[in-house]
């Protein structure tokens, strides 16, 4: 199973720091992977702005979205349900999306996130005319 990912940018256009990072799947921009630092709850408003800006981009209009709530092991972290609420995910109606809780540090949930990404890609392909 090969899933080529490239980092496109982070919150406010900065690759380092910030509450979120954006990965694109494949050279064809097949999916958006939006990685959130759940341990920066006070900065999630910025992450939300970035996410919704990306969702408006014409060439990404149909791309499925996987949101990854990282650092779930950290004491400062917001639970995944709250991250989902903060990002307004339930308002997304024009594409398939999922949110998965992970801890990259403890490699907890990483397999599940990759499987979910594959599932989204498969479903998206199957829904195309
Ligand atoms: N507790 C915890 N720490 C993590 C996790 N993933 C990454 N980190 C640590 O968080 C620190 C910063 O890493 P990132 O957030 O990926 O990097 P960044 O966004 O460029 O830098 P920051 O401004 O520090 O957030 C590093 O020390 C990582 O090891 C995780 O799942 N849990
Ligand atoms: Mg970070």
From TrEMBL:
Residues annotated as transmembrane: none
Keywords: GTP-binding, Lipoprotein, Myristate, Nucleotide-binding
Phylogenetic classification of the source organism: Eukaryota, Metazoa, Spiralia, Lophotrochozoa, Mollusca
Entry-linked Pfam families: Arf (PF00025)
UniProt organism field: Octopus vulgaris
Gene Ontology terms, MF aspect: GTP binding; GTPase activity
Family membership noted in the UniProt record: Belongs to the small GTPase superfamily. Arf family.
Protein name: ADP-ribosylation factor 11
Gene3D superfamilies membership: P-loop containing nucleotide triphosphate hydrolases
Nucleotide-binding found in the keyword field: yes
Positions with a binding annotation for GTP: 70-73
């Amino acid at each position: 199973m090969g899933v080529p990912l490239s980092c496109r940018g982070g919150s406010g256009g900065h690759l380092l720091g910030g509450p979120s990072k954006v990965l694109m799947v494949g050279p064809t921009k097949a999916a958006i992977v939006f990685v959130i630092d759940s341990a920066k709850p006070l900065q999630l408003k910025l992450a939300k702005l970035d996410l919704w800006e990306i969702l408006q981009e014409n060439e990404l209009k149909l791309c499925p979205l996987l949101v990854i709530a990282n650092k779930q092991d950290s004491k400062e972290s917001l639970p995944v349900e709250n991250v989902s609420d903060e990002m307004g995910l339930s308002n997304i109606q024009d594409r398939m999306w999922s949110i998965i809780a992970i801890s990259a540090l403890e490699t907890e949930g990483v397999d599940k996130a990759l499987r979910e990404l594959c599932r989204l890609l498969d479903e998206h392909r199957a829904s195309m005319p």
